[in-house]
Design brief:
single chain, Gyrase A, domain 2, transferase, DNA-directed RNA polymerase activity, RPO1C, EC 2.7.7.6, 422 residues, four-stranded antiparallel sheet, DNA polymerase, domain 1
Length: 422
């Protein structure tokens, strides 16, 4: 029993009884992980039968200790476990070095966005990983980035003026920005022609200067000219709407190779998934509702858990993931993402007393009375309001005594009868 064994095939038959108990009492995934770890440890360091037995017993005890007791008020525990460390969260933003005005909201503001299920995050961002052909070549990654980044004429023009004498818009293109955005003069010309504001011409002496000749009209005013100029400024050349900026980042992947991926300011999951060169299995956005609409409610739930855990971990707050999973489950249990608030989880409770206890007390009570709602007092809040026994812990069970059975039992027990006579 104290002899070191270095072969799993030799050790396994000697601890078969303990392994059988573990197989019966542990979930399949945990049992398989335990068996794999035992096998690796035996073959690398060696184990005695006693040591292997103690390891299995320890895992079984830890697993059973981690299980929730029947009647445990898990909602209250989860709220307290997240709320208490949440008071220590700071108002933080992460800034991408060298990128002007490119920040990511973190800390308390981001956590509030998540539990409020905001339609648009304050700093929408996407992480776009590329396919095999594009991920290892920076120039090819740049090609994909150029396809995605929403590029307007204002992004490639150094100057846009109105020539009042000749009634035309004068557009001077920036050669550096044209190169950076991967845009040609011909693309700009085609964009201007699509606007149908007038004939588009190139300056004979400078191909980077374009003219949009406007049609004269009696009702023309300076305001009309300004509107046409704004239309030219905001005309789309290429890219995906809402993706304001794309930067290329690199990392060393599991294979030890340098891999390039894209980080965007702005989010549009549906259109990004259709871009050639993008690996659709590894595209990520921090917009909950986009994930729900495109990938479904289970993906939205997984994203909520990840985002909440990341925010807390970044702040150095150690919160058990089961509390976070419970919050995500409550927010997504109806098949759609709901906020924790009067327009979501709290406002949709079946109990009128619970709804009134949260916010807008009189309005909720009047509305419930008008509809003739009945409160069955099944939850914690409404039971406390009426002074009842809350159905958690020992309050979940009812113990009743039958006096006739007690008297009969006492009569059949001599010791009890003697004590009664005394």
């Amino acid at each position: 029993m104290t002899q070191l064994i270095f072969s799993w095939e030799e050790l396994k038959p000697k601890i078969e009884e303990q392994l059988f108990q573990a197989r019966e009492r542990l979930p399949k995934r945990i049992y398989e992980e335990l068996e794999e770890k035992l096998k690796n440890t035996v073959e690398k360091h060696g184990l005695t039968v006693d040591e292997a037995t103690k390891i299995i017993e320890y895992v079984l005890n830890e697993y059973e200790y981690s299980m929730v007791e029947p009647g445990e008020p898990v909602g209250t525990v989860a709220a307290q476990s997240i709320g208490e460390p949440g008071t220590q969260m700071t108002l933080r933003t992460f800034h991408y070095a060298g990128i002007r005005e490119f920040n990511v909201t973190l800390g308390l503001p981001r956590f509030i966005e998540l539990v409020d299920a905001r339609r648009e995050p304050s700093t929408p961002i996407m992480y776009i990983y590329l396919d095999e052909e594009h991920r290892y070549d920076e120039n090819k990654a740049k090609e994909v980035a150029r396809r995605i980044e929403y590029t307007r004429i204002v992004n490639v023009a150094s100057e846009i003026d109105i020539d009042l004498i000749n009634l035309r818009i004068v557009l001077r293109l920036d050669p550096v920005m044209l190169e950076d955005k991967g845009v040609t003069v011909e693309q700009v010309k085609k964009t201007l022609e699509r606007l149908k504001l007038g004939k588009v011409e190139e300056d004979s002496s400078n191909p980077l200067v374009l003219y949009v000749q406007l049609e004269p009209s009696e009702s023309f005013s300076l305001i009309d000219l300004q509107k046409k100029r704004e239309k030219v400024l905001n005309a789309k050349i290429k890219g995906i709407k809402k993706i304001r900026r794309v930067i290329i980042q690199s990392m060393v992947n599991d294979e030890g190779k340098t891999e390039y991926f894209l980080v965007t300011e702005g989010s549009n999951l549906k259109d990004v998934l259709e871009v050639p060169g993008v690996d659709p299995r590894r595209v990520y956005t921090n917009n909950i509702h986009e994930i729900e609409e495109i990938l479904g409610i289970e993906a939205a739930r997984a994203m909520l858990v990840k985002e909440m855990k990341d925010v807390l971990d970044e702040q150095g707050l150690d919160v058990d993931i089961r509390h976070i999973v419970l919050v995500a489950d409550v927010m997504t249990m109806t098949g759609r993402v709901r906020q924790i608030g009067r327009h979501g989880v709290s406002g949709e409770k079946p109990s009128p007393l619970a709804r009134a206890a949260f916010e807008m007390t009189t309005q909720n009570l009047f509305a419930a009375a008008a509809k003739g709602e009945v409160d069955k007092l099944l939850g914690v809040t409404e039971t406390v309001i009426v002074g009842g026994v809350v159905r958690v812990g020992t309050g979940m069970v009812e113990v009743r005594m039958n006096p006739s059975l007690v008297a009969k039992a006492m009569a059949q027990t001599p010791e009890a009868g003697q004590r009664g006579e005394a």
